[in-house]
């Protein structure tokens, strides 16, 4: 990746757990996207048992990954995301799964409202008409129900609360008191953004979901847990500080690398 000395820096946060089959391709897809910002890739290996750690070290040696952090024991996606947030230096942060379900070519769509100063956070919705793989009916129904409950509690009108693609201004995301370890990070981020008064946009993104045979990890127990997290973080936890959005896009400054 080329040097971006006068543009905002985007930190791409990639939680990794046993993604050896898709990890390198996922990172190379991020690298290949032409973006109007500098980019750093932050990977957190959540105690993978496959060859993911070796792949990450090789990609770091090639200069494609800025930071690799390894958890000594498996803690869950939320813990990996929180570690990645702490390691990132970007003006804007986005979560990118390593399983090829989300296409990095959609990242410019997420960036646009933030760079124009209209949004503090942008969600990539799988349900706004972009191409998507046809898969599980009950997953779609569950996603719709969780999004409905989230909207009921936050007074938002999101179409896809559970989306991986959440892009947030760096100062805002770092200010959120996040604590979830597993997939509860999705409803928690949404609750915290609503409590902070963040300006949230949605854009359509494509989606190539995996089957369980292809390595999908989230299951019905995580859906039940997500419902509890929605109630917990919206009704029974102390919110973070309100966010006062700056009137201009994120500042330009030297990137740490690339």
- Give the distance, in angstroms, between the N- and C-terminal Cα atoms: 5 Å
General shape: globular
Range of strand content: 5-15%
Approximate helicity band: 25-40%
Class from secondary-structure proportions: alpha/beta
Task: Jot down its keywords.
258 residues; seven-stranded mixed sheet; 7 strands; 15% strand; globular
How would you explain this protein's 3D organization?
The chain has 258 residues and is of the alpha/beta class. Helices cover 36% and strands 15% of the residues. It has helices at 23-32, 52-61, 77-87, 107-115, 137-154, 170-175, 185-196, 220-235; strands at residues 9-16, 38-45, 67-70, 92-95, 121-125, 166-169, 200-204. Strands 3-2-1-4-6-5-7 form a 7-stranded mixed β-sheet, sandwiched between helices. Strand 2 (38-45), helix 2 and strand 3 (67-70) form a beta-alpha-beta unit. Helix 5 (137-154) packs parallel to helix 8 (220-235) and helix 7 (185-196) runs parallel beside helix 8. The longest helix is centred in the middle third of the chain and has 18 residues, at 137-154. The radius of gyration is 17 Å and the shape is globular. The N and C termini lie close together (5 Å). 45% of the residues are buried.
């Amino acid at each position: 990746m080329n040097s971006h000395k006068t543009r905002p820096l985007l930190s791409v946060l990639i939680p990794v757990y046993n993604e050896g089959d898709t990890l390198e391709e996922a990172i190379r897809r991020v690298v290949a996207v032409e973006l109007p910002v500098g980019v750093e890739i932050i990977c957190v290996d959540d105690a993978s048992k496959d060859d993911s750690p070796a792949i990450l070290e090789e990609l770091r040696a090639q200069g494609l990954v800025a930071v690799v952090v390894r958890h000594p024991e498996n803690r869950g996606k939320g813990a990996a995301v929180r570690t990645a947030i702490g390691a990132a230096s970007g003006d804007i942060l986005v979560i990118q799964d390593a399983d090829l379900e989300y296409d990095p070519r959609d990242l410019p769509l997420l960036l646009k409202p933030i760079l124009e100063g209209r949004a503090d956070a942008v969600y990539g919705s799988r349900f706004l008409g972009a191409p998507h793989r046809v898969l599980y009916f009950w997953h779609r129904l569950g996603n719709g129900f969780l999004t409905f409950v989230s909207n009921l509690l936050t007074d938002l009108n999101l179409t896809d609360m559970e989306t991986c693609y959440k892009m947030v201004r760096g100062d805002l995301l770092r200010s959120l008191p996040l604590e979830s370890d597993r997939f509860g990070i999705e409803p928690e981020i949404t609750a915290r953004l609503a409590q902070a008064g963040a300006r949230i946009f949605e854009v359509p993104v494509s989606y190539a979901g995996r089957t369980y045979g292809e390595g999908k990890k989230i299951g019905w127990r995580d859906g039940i847990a997500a419902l509890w997290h929605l109630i917990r973080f919206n009704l029974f936890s102390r919110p973070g500080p309100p966010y006062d959005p700056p009137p201009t896009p994120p500042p330009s400054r030297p990137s740490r690398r690339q």
